[in-house]
Amino acid sequence: MNKPKMTTEKGVPSNSRVVMLLGQLERMNGEAVPGDAEMARHVTGKILHLIQTQEKTKKEMTAKGSSGMEVILAALENMQDLQTVLNILCILNELVSVGGGNRVGVLVSKGGTAILLQLLLSASKDVPPSEELMLQLHSILAKVGPKDKKFGVKARVNGALNITVNLLKQNLQNQKLLLPCLQVLRVYSSNKANSRRAVDRTYVPALLTIYQDWHRNDTRHRHAHIRKGILGCIRNVTNIKLGRKAFLDADGMRILYSTSTECLPVRTLDPLVNTSSLIMRKCFPKNRLPVPTIKSVFQYRLPHVPAEGPVAQLYRQPPEVDDVVDESDDNDDADTENDTENEEDDRDCCLQNDDIETDLNKLRPGEQASRTMEELRMYERFFSELSEDFQGYHFHGSSPCQTPSLPSKSLSRIVVPTAPDMTPSDSNLVQLECADRALDQRPGEGLEQALVRELGRVALDGGAAPNGQRPAAESEVEREDDCSSHSSGDQAVLEVPDTAALLPLHDPELYVEMVKDTRSVPQYSEVAYPDYFGHIAPTYREHIVERLYGVQRSKIFQDIERMIHPNDILDKVVYDLDLQSCPVVDDGECLKFNSLFESGNLRKAVQVRKFEYDLILNSDINSNHYHQWFYFEVSSMRAGTPYRFNIINCEKSNSQFNYGMQVLMYSVREAINGRPCWVRTGTDICYYKNHFSRSSIAAGGQKGKSYYTMTFTVTFQHKDDVCYFAYHYPYTYSTLKMHLQKLEALRTPQIYLRQDVLCETLGGNSCPLLTITAMPQSTSNDQICQFRNRPYVFLTARVHPGETNASWVMKGTLEFLMGTGPVAQSLREAYIFKIVPMLNPDGVVNGNHRCSLSGEDLNRQWQRPNPDLHPTIFHAKGLLQYLSALQRVPLVYCDYHGHSRKKNVFMYGCSIKETVWQTDVNATSSDLHEDLGYRTLPKILSQIAPAFSMASCSFVVEKSKESTARVVVWREIGVQKSYTMESTLCGCDQGKYKGLQIGTRELEEMGAQFCVALLRLKRLSSPLEVRHASHFLEAEGDLIETSCRNTSSTTYVLKEDEPSFMEEVDYSAESDEETDPQENPGDEEHLSDSEAVQQHPFT
Ligand SMILES: [Zn+2]
Known about the structure:
Layout: H1 17-30, H2 37-53, H3 55-62, H4 68-78, H5 82-96, H6 104-109, H7 112-123, H8 131-144, H9 151-158, H10 160-170, H11 175-188, H12 192-200, H13 203-217, H14 224-237, H15 241-249, H16 252-263, H17 270-283, H18 310-316, H19 373-376, E1 438-441, H20 447-454, H21 469-485, E2 492-495, H22 499-502, H23 508-516, H24 529-533, H25 551-564, E3 572-576, E4 592-594, E5 602-609, E6 612-617, E7 631-635, E8 642-650, E9 663-667, H26 668-672, E10 678-681, E11 683-694, E12 705-715, E13 722-726, H27 733-744, E14 751-760, E15 766-774, H28 781-789, E16 792-797, H29 804-817, H30 822-830, E17 832-836, H31 841-845, H32 871-885, E18 892-899, E19 905-908, H33 912-917, H34 925-928, H35 936-944, H36 965-973, E20 977-984, H37 1000-1020, H38 1029-1044, H39 1083-1095
Parallel strand pairs: 6-8, 16-17, 16-18, 18-20
Antiparallel strand pairs: 1-2, 3-5, 4-7, 5-6, 7-13, 8-12, 9-10, 9-13, 11-12, 14-15, 15-17, 19-20
This protein binds zinc ion.
């Protein structure tokens, strides 16, 4: 009477057929003596029949609260009759497949594993064991194993492991039984101790032999599952170091390489190729990056070294320490260098939910001990607009066309001795002269030589380049002079492009002048031709390229071939900054490289095969990593031949190069032919983890990390061209200085433009500061008052040197602000703009990706900038603190950035409410009573700027960002509308530019639209002048109501917005397992939480 009853959930009729049968079975379980075998067979057979024919029966038995599973397991433990046991196993097999395998967990939690393993043990004692029983048992164990963390241990302890292995050995040709056995074996081998045992017993070569055997005999590919099962075991065993060694010793690389090559033509065998390639990549012996140190080639001694942090570590590191590889890397047997690596080194993108700021004190406005008014008075000179009374200035009134007497000189300009003279006086003199200059190219002479001969002045000191490359080229020209040029009369005449006519802000002569004052650590003496000629955005559309299936795989196979056929590899160093005299191999058999110019950063080039080069990027100065940005020159190429380039020391775990982004190329020959443009180029582009090991020093203490390869293939159009490659459209510091000087020429009497030097950088470059607003209409009190009281808009850009797109957006903003149209004029009348267009000139000049010369990310220094180490940040913040002290807190602050992993243009802002929503923090209602004004500007932008996407914006404050400009300006200065504006490096996936890669035209347009949006923002607060809170809020409220409703309120970004690869041979794990849901135990649970949050932020 007290026995547990079959309980059922509501909705399940307790008198249903299956419940009755289970009740019967339960009674039989309870009987002391096993009862009638016939009866048990009958009952279990009936249940099986019901389950197989009625979906609802499965659900009933596995529903919450149902004890069906327990009854079945109890029966399995009790019953001896073979047929009954088989019936029960079939029932279990059916049950565990309900809901995509979710019921397996129930079976495990009810102790099913032990019962099944015990059954396996006793069944193995029968001679011979029942094949059907073994088959059923293994197929269910294959499903149960991955859900039971202790499965591998349990199986080893109870002896089941050996039974499976023996069974496997005896049934190598038995395809029916082999598959489930392999599947179980694979689960066993996911346990490290089991894997070690497998290695000890020489199972690795055995498995390889079996694999080859099946590969050879399964000519019709009917048993690909078995072959994959074998690979699955190998893959697990090679997760441990011993396993990888055994694999290499057994010639595994060659075996899997040749079998895969044979499988390649058959698309249905892709899973085999993919798994093979995964194993081969894992086992590929780690190579040393061919550099003496990972520290930058160029040294810059800091005035003082920060007490802590990566720079301090770098300085403390004894010179004899090998920082390229870890010493102990090889005997680290317990290591987990496997393919389930879930790494994250880009905190920008994938931060954990626990990065959300939960300390309300850090979300509330608060000023960190600010500098006193006395200390801030040094900034008064940058705000002469606040005291200017314009007495003695003749307003245009009657003769608007007259040149004003005001420009720059009448305003007290602060000139730092090293600052370039930014007076516009000579702008008339620098008329472009190169328009008619012809370039004579002599027969047999490469373009490079001709350029050097004719435009030698582009190298600042007449071609005496430090690496000796230029002089070599020149002497060669002379030799050719002697022998050939007299005999041949006809010379190709090339026109040098008149880019000035097309590019109003560009002037090659002026550019060279600017370069002369630019200080670089390597003391560059050359100028890259693209920066000299300028860039005109191409008129055609550049589509985001569709990734072809199998590209990554074929690249990886080519890399593996290096190991299989070492004799085919040239390994010829053709460029090397680490050597005093950079080798210049000019045997006509290889490309020539160069990168010794502003923003260049190629460290080394190695010719691997005839048309393939490994490239290594230089680290940021005073750092040992940050490799992403690149800019270098290539010459001596053949036309029509595909060249493969591999940048082999990339660090991020993923890249937009995997999602349709192409590299940028600039051809000097095309420029000379009238097309001076950076164009998107490259085929077979992909980004993947490679076999070059990254030392723990370079990987933030983590061992066993690898670098990543960014590979692209280019077929040059012209022979002997000079081409440049870049990560994104270059924009050097000298370019900025040139643009700023040309900007002066756009001044009209209506424009108030002042250029100051905010400060000098560590490297001795000046950091420009611009003030732009409208001139007052007269010197009347009212006008002067209106002039002085305009709200400030504070803009900064290019704190991160590798984000050149930020500079192009800034260029668009500046040009718009200097425009003559009515919108520009209204905008100037509405605000005073304070702009620091390049917060990190040194980083830009020296080809850094992320840091300044101090080796630090300047956008993490805003809380406590050091005046010596971070002068531009210290003083930019000083300007804001000064304004704050004057009660003139800017209305808007925006810092322009580039984003390497997302598409479109979008903003990050700061909202206490939206941050708190993401956490469980209990906030008082006063904290949550927040003006929604921070959403207005991005909202307007999403309406008017085609590249802008509201859906990508986020207003959540993260801990890791607490020292960024945006957060500090929001919290300490009190600017509610404080933003980071991120522009994609790749392209857009929405709006008018959907499917297109972004170019300078779109970026500049974005900068202009930002201005237009500011005017709209102003108008939303009109007609009454600024700060009419009620009006303001209503208008904004409406705006948000009308268009914000339907879109998601905030995407909690931070997760990449890319779909997974079509081709998933990826380092990111077991991803080729689409056919095997039981892979990756535990992963589903792990992911579901965070995914739910990210997809439905407010549910
Ligand atoms: Zn940035």
